[in-house]
């Protein structure tokens, strides 16, 4: 994979001209700071490929699975998306980013899928100093694994945690610390809005064009 990306970078660099960038490689190659080496550019490109190949497709697949098991949620999702599709057709307007992310029930479906599916099982964190958390001592240099599944499926955090219930999010925003599919703090995944957008686009076209 690394060799393939390096060849792409070399071919782009050989033929690059000063114009609007057409893809990620050209955006990185046009970096004005000139601090990005070819190795750093390759690392960034490979890092962006992983979510597109793994996490977001899994999110889409699980959303279809959970919706198939919950006819009421599927019906409400379809109704919401058909309403927007017909409105856009009447106005002769194309769909845009804000349209997809403005669908409230669609977002609750995605949020509940992220909670139950736990697309990212957890994250590793290294203790930079001796730390104590809830009575547990973690020495400096040790690694701790934050296991999202144990939090998302904990009945102390969610009533009936193993039940797919998008409506549980209608009056919540998931900011209470018990919902962390994209991590948190300084290491919050920068692709969280893109992941939601991609899932929203998929679900919109799926429920408005297929059974």
From TrEMBL:
It is a single-pass membrane protein. It comes from the Eukaryota. It is found in: Membrane. Belongs to the cytochrome P450 family. Keywords: Heme, Iron, Membrane, Metal-binding, Monooxygenase, Oxidoreductase, Transmembrane, Transmembrane helix. InterPro entries: Cyt_P450, Cyt_P450_CS, Cyt_P450_E_grp-I, Cyt_P450_sf. It comes from Salix suchowensis. This is 3-epi-6-deoxocathasterone 23-monooxygenase. Signal peptide: none annotated. Pfam families: p450 (PF00067).
